Structure formats: structure tokens, C-alpha cells
Amino acid sequence: MDLGGARVGGNLDCSNGAFRNANGPVINANGARIGAVVFLRGKDFVAEGEVRLIGATIGGQLDCSGGAFRNATGRAFDAEAAKISADVYLQDGTFDGAIDFTRADITGSLQFHRAQLSGAVDLEASRIGAGLFWKDVRGKVSDLNLVEAYVSALRDDNESWDAVEAVHIAGFCYDRINSEMTLSERLDWLSKARQRFILPSVGRMRDFEGFDKQLRVPLLWLRGPYKDNFDPQPYSQLAKVLTESGDRIGAARVLTMREKRQRRAAWHRSHARLDGTVDAGLKSIVGDVKLVFDWMFGWLFG
Hints:
The structure is a single chain. This protein has 302 residues and is of the alpha/beta class. 30% of the residues lie in helices and 27% in strands. The strands form two sheets. Strands 1, 2, 5, 6, 9, 10, 12, 13, 15, 16, 18, 19, 21 and 23 form a 14-stranded parallel beta sheet that branches. Strands 3, 4, 7, 8, 11, 14, 17, 20 and 22 form a nine-stranded parallel beta sheet that branches. It starts with 6 loop residues before the first strand and ends with a helix.
């Protein structure tokens, strides 16, 4: 069904419809302007192929509740840069393929409640005015991208995060949290965030010239102290929200963990710069001394 650039004054209702296309998008509504609600819902709704709403403007809700969206070789649902003036319901739906809401502007909430997911979910740089529901999510999410995304409220549970293999939360901002997750579970969630590798100096790379380039980083990681780099922003964001909600003790725990990981990353960086020169060697020794003093400070004063 091709609705690219179409103008619809009222609802677009495809409830319980069946759409199949093996050679391209099954529904194309790129750049469409729909004045009211878009219904792609129902226990009998099936879309076998990519559903595209790239750059679409929807005046009401986007309701995909209970629908089945299948495109295992690519995106099952693509709403990149869409503007939606109410809630987006993906609850109770089945999505076999990637979901893309990159740079989407959603006035209401984005709800994955009880959704069955298989593939990546990309919410990079999206703005969600009434909150993100990541609750009772089932399946296997290979990658969840929340980089530079903003949500007014984060509503989640620990079991749903267990369904995510890799999460990216650099620059992810939220005003409040509505969740039953404990602080320890929240810290575990932060620790799952993917970080950049600290690459060794060019001099150290020469030690491994015989290995394939794609294998150098993991081999170096095993050989030397080239652990992940550290982005303190997600910890600072959580501490800020906890402080504003009155949980200053919890915020202090988060900041303590941030400080530990930040100092540990600084030590790894000092050793990653080793290239056989005296200057790099001295800096690594300074890093070792600082690490010892940091441990003593933490043991004495907490």
C-alpha cells in the first residue's frame, strides 16, 4: 500500500488488515499527513515487510496494539523523524525485525508494554513528551539505542532490561523515574551501557602486526589493560533525578560509583599510552600511584 506524501483529513484505519510484500515496503506512508489516528492494530493485523512512516505527521495516536510486524531481514517498523501528536502504542504487539524511531517527536508516550521484540530498537535523538514505557518486554533485543534521547518519564522494570543484549545511553535524559527497580538494579543497568574501547598507542599496536586487524582490539584487551572507556553522563543524570526526588543517599551511591569508574578509566588510559618512551612510562607510574591513593582514600573516608 503506497501512501507516500498522501493527505488524510481523518483516521487511517487498517485494523485487522493483512499486508504482504516480498519485494519492498508493505506499507509506505513516508511524508504522509494524517489528521487524526493511525490504526495498525488488532490480533489479526499482519504486516510481512517493512512499514514506513518516515517523516510522517500524525495528528493523533499511532496505535499498533496487538499487531504482528515481520521483516527479519531489515526494519519491521520505520518511523524515523515522524511527528506524532499523541501516544504511540506498540503494546501487546509482535515485532520480528528492527524498530526505528530515530529523531521522532512524540508528544505523548511511547509504550512497549508487553511487546514481543526480536531485533534492534533505535530511539536515538527522539523526544518523547509523556514518557517511555519499557515494561513486561519479552523476546530478544539485540541493540537498544537511547543516545541523546529525551523522555519526560522512564517507566521500566528490570526483567525488560534483561531482554536487551546491548544498550547505548550516552546523553540519554529523563526528568523522573517511575519504577520498582532497586538502586542496585539501576546501577547494574548503568553498568550494561556500551562504552568505547581505549585503544593502545601506535607503538604498542606494532607488537601485533602479524594479527588480522579485526582481531587486534580483542587481543590487546586480553593482553593489556585496555578496558572500556567511561562516560560519566548517565551516572550524573541518574544522580540528578534521584536528588530531585529526595533520595540523596541513593544519589550519593551513584556518584560514588561514577567516581570509582572514572578513576579506573583514567588508569587504563595512562597505560594505553605506553609506547616505549620515558614520558609515557612516567605517566603510567603516576597513574599507578594515583590508583593506590584513590583506594586508600576510599577505604579511609568512603
